UniProtKB/TrEMBL annotation:
Keywords: Repeat, Signal, TPR repeat
Coiled-coil residues: none
Superkingdom of the organism of origin: Bacteria
Organism: Neotabrizicola shimadae
Name used for this protein in its record: Tetratricopeptide repeat protein
Amino acid sequence: MQLARFRHPLLAAVLAILPAGAFAVGSDDSSPPTQTQTTTVCPKGQVWSDKLKACTMPEDSRLDDDTRFRAVRELAWAGRPDDALAVLATMTEGDTDRVLTYRGFALRKSGNLEGGLAAYEAALKQNPDNILARSYFGQMLVEMNEVQLASLQLDEIRARGGAGTWAEQALATAIATGVTYSF
């Protein structure tokens, strides 16, 4: 691969250091998030807790990270990436590849491509088999008109056992049509 030919030198450098490794499938959440009171009732900055049956601040210690993560996905899908980032900042599990994947997604959707790139790189460094991170990263590359680089991510998804998954289909569609996903 001749990385010097790519339009974005930072992307070329990232792709050069991304690990290639085992072929296990990473996480792949394929359905749009279910809309809840987080986006229909709660004031800005709050999330819905089924456990509490109320809106609460995302840093509330009674919330678990899975509840926060569902709110992040819902907020991102609703076109509120800055709110999604605020909830991600309260996650207690730290910078896991799932948190980094959605940080990359929310940063990308907020227009911060450099931040999105760094988050996807960190997610894939932790878990090279995270096919969802690869799909979102590839979709960012499509948005940047870097279709060849996006195709490399599609190849990686397939090589890591992701053929037939939403991650593969979403990226293949993005490459073919230029349309990317918001969840």
